[in-house]
Amino acid sequence: MSRLGNLGGRLYRGESSIDFVGKQRLWYAVSGLILIVSIASLATLGLNMGIEFKGGSVFQFKSNQATTQQVRSAVEHSGVVHQQPIVQKTSIGWRVQTESLKSDQLLTVQKSLADTFHLSSPDSVSPSSVGASWGADISKKAFQGLIIFVILVIAYLSIAFEWRMAAAAVIALAHDILITIGIYSLLQFEVTPGSVVGLLTILGYSLYDTVVVFDKVRENTRGLSPSSRVSYSQAANLALNQTLVRSINTTVIALLPVGGLLFIGAGFLGAGTLKDLALVLFVGMLAGAYSSICIATPLLADLKERDPKMKALRERLRARENSPKRQARSGRQASTSVAVPSGSGPVDGVEEPQDEAGESAAAVRRVVQQGPRQQPKKGTRRSRGQ
Asked: How far apart, in whole angstroms, are the C-alpha atoms of residue 38 and residue 176?
């Protein structure tokens, strides 16, 4: 437990490290597979649009003895409904959704429900109709808001950071949107105006987490030049490890109230309106946390190392690492190392060696903290007797 509790400190100091940037091909493959499944689901199954988007009629009534199958049968036996109705149990009673019906058809369904469940009169069933134009207006305004949001994000990140960070952040946002929409399509969750609002909300959350990591990347990579001792990817990976615990804590704290709305409010208490908002927030926050760690920063490192200076630095460090003299030195150090039994302390003053990832991360952190090498100032050295 103590090692787990000190994980954040070890990651920040470079004593332990997870090579997120070095394993970018694995993250790209995982995201690519999820995106392929999402796109295929959208192309074949499509989205389960709510009544606000496709139009229809809704009937609401109270009955303590009804079941879902009984309500569905009562509506179908009215003879005016040709598509299978959607029946939901809510906190205030029953909600039945059908295709668009005319006035006389509404009365027929009201009478069928009232007779089946022994209601006082057909007026005990409350009917309403929703046109598809209202949902279309919401979709249009949401799309316009999304375009404006993306333009502002690109402009701000390009000015505050650089265009490569803006490109990586926007690609991560598109990644989150496609995954969230794909999950809705694959599981056939109903898309409502609350779902659209939640989708726009998760964009800001995902961007916030990404900007926090990028700010640390900028701090660690400031002053890198072709003569530096660490590559851009190494410095960026250190920044990712330093902010990893913060990102995880932020995600967990954000998911707790959303999970409460989804599982307690919608699942246990039956508040259907909470489900529409909480479900998209829960799925989108998980996708946003994954993309800010495993997609945005590795993608930024790939884009940055296409720059001639950063590419030259990486090639120089790689050639230095593969030089015969460096390999011979590493072989001599390995041959003279002392094996320490597991769980024991230092033997004859020799400390237990760290793992390779931890040593590499610690070295990168020392170089980042020291900054570029400086030439010693000229001067006279005082004698010991003075």
From this structure: 11
Question: H helices then E strands: how many in the chain?
Answer: 16, 6
Burial class of 14 by CB neighbour count within 10 A (0 to 12, 13 to 18, 19+): buried
pTM for this one? 0.71
Geometric angle at alpha carbon 108, from 104 and 110, rounded to 5°: 115
Residue 74 has pLDDT above 90, yes or no: no
Question: Cα separation of 157 and 183, whole Å?
Answer: 29
Strands 190-191, 48-49: pairing kind: parallel
Does the structure show a pLDDT above 70 at 61? Answer: yes
**Mean of pLDDT values over 96-121:** 85
| b/e per residue 53-79 (b: at least 16 CB within 10 A) | bbbbbbbbbebeebeeeebbebbbebe
β-strand partners of 345: none
Q: Examine the pLDDT at 26 and tell me if it is beyond 90.
A: yes
Give the pLDDT band of residue 367 (cuts 50, 70, 90): low
82 CB-near residues (< 8 Å, 6+ apart): 99
Residue 288 corresponds to which tokens in the numbers above? 């946003």
Give the 3-state DSSP-derived string for 137-169, with helices as H, strands as E and coil as C.
Answer: HHHHHHHHHHHHHHHHHHHHHHHHCCHHHHHHH
Residue with tokens 């007026």: 123
CA 241 – CA 2 distance, rounded (Å): 19
* pLDDT value for 90: 73
How distant is the alpha carbon of residue 269 from its chain centre? 28
d(CA 307, CA 159): 19
Residues 6+ apart with CB under 8 A from 192: 50, 52, 276
Q: Residues 94-120: what's their mean pLDDT?
A: 85
Question: Per this entry, what is the length of the chain?
Answer: 386
What value does the mean pLDDT of the chain take?
77
Distance CA 297, CA 294 (A): 7
Give the burial class of 235: count Cβ atoms within 10 A of its Cβ; 0-12 exposed, 13-18 middle, 19 or more buried.
buried
What's the rounded Cα separation, in Å, for the pair 54 and 100?
Answer: 9
Distance CA 107, CA 113 (A): 10
Which residue in the block uniquely carries the two structure tokens 């369904």?
Answer: 109
